[in-house]
Amino acid sequence: MVRFFTDTISLQEACSLLRVSRPTFNKYRKKYKLKEFCRGRHVFFFRMELVKKILIPENTIVESSNLIFDDCNVDHLEASSNIFDLRGISNVDEFGAMSLICLFKKRLYFAEQKVLILVKNSISCRYLKSIGFFDELKRGSSNLFINDEEIEGGTLLPPENILRLTSLGYKGAEKKILEQLYSNLQDQGFSENLCSRLGWALGELADNAHTHAGSPCFMTIVGRPAKPKEPKFLCISIGDIGDGISGTLKTNPKYQNLSDLEALCLSFKSTVTSWDDIAERGKGLNDLLAIGKGNQAWVRVECNGISLFFDFGKIPFETKVREASTKTAGTRFSLVLIDANFIDVSRAEIDLMIEKIMREQI
Q1: H-helix or E-strand containing 120?
Q2: Going by C-beta distance under 8 Å and a sequence separation of 6 or more, which residues neighbour residue 175?
C-alpha cells in the first residue's frame, strides 16, 4: 500500500488529472463525496479515488482482454496518460505478465513518470499476485500508485509455478536461480533431459539480455499440466527493457540499414551479431531456436513492435509475423517446451531456416 501523502494531489493537480475546470471539479466534490484534507491553506485529494470514481469508474469496465502467449496486447490497457486499468483482464498467463512488467518498468525507470495502475479482486489479478508480479512491480518504484491491497488471498504460489516473476539485476544471476530450480522441476516430475536443456537456454537468454540491454531482465517459469499419459509443458518467459534485438544489431554498421523485421530475423543466424567480427559472437539466439525446433516447441520472440511466432509442433513448422504485445522498447522471449526427448538441430539448419523465412515473410 502506498504511503498516505504520496497518494494525494492538490486541487490544481486534481483538475489537471481529470481535465476539468475548477467549477466543474467543485461539482464533482459534492456529487462523488470526495475525501479531502487540508494542510495549511491548501486542500488535497486522493489520486486513486479520483480515478476510480470519476475518470475510470468500474461500471464501465468489460472483461474482454486476453493477455496470453498466443493473443496478447497490453498497450490498450492505458486508459489515460500513464493510467493503466487491469480490471478488464479476463485471462492472463506468464507471457502476459512479462509484457506488463516490461511496459510498466520502462515507464517508471526510464521515463521517470508517475504511473497509476488499477486492479481488482479478480481471478486474473489474483494470479498476477500469486506469481509475485506486484511485489516485483513495486520494487524500487517510488512513482507507482496501485490499489493491490484490494486483492484478497495470500501470496502462495500456484502448484504449477516453478519460478516467481524475478528480476536478474546482474550478469550471472541466473546461475544461482538454476540451483534452486532443478529440485523444484524434479519434484513436479520433469525429466533430467529437460532440466539440463532448460539451464542452458536460460543462461543464453539471460546473458543476451544483460550483454545487450544494459538493464535488468525479468524471468518466470511455469509448468503446465497435460492430459493423462501425455508429457508436461514448461513455459519460460524472459524480458528486458533495453533497446531490443533489432536496435542492438543495427549498431553494427553492416546492418544499420535493415528494417526492424529484417534485423530481428537476421539476428537468429549464427554468423550475425552486433559485435565486431573478431569477437566471434552471435550464436546464442541461433542455438535457442535449435532447442525449440528440436523439441517441437512454441517460441515467441518480440521487440520494437514486431513479434515472431514459431510453431515447431506443426509439420512443416509454421512461422508468423505479428504485432508485438507492446510497442515498449526491449526484448521478450517465451518458450513452451515439452517434457520429451530433444532432437539435435545444427546451427547450419537454423541458418537455412531463417533464410527461407526471410524470403517468404519479407
Answers
A1: none
A2: 203
Q: Which of 189, 186, 164 is nearest to 177 (CA)?
A: 164
State pLDDT tens for residues 203-242: 777 776 666 666 778 988 888 776 777 788 888 899 988 8
Termini Cα distance of the chain: 48
Do 209 and 186 contact (CB within 8 A), yes or no? no
Q: Is the dihedral of CA 17, 23, 24, 29 positive or negative?
A: positive
The grid coordinates of residue 325 equal 504485445
Dihedral angle, C-alpha 206, 208, 214, 220, nearest 10 °: -30
pTM: 0.87
d(CA 218, CA 228): 32
- The b-or-e profile of 40-61 (16+ CB within 10 A means b, else e) is eeeebbbbbbbbbbbbbeeeeb
Residue whose grid cell is 559472437: 281
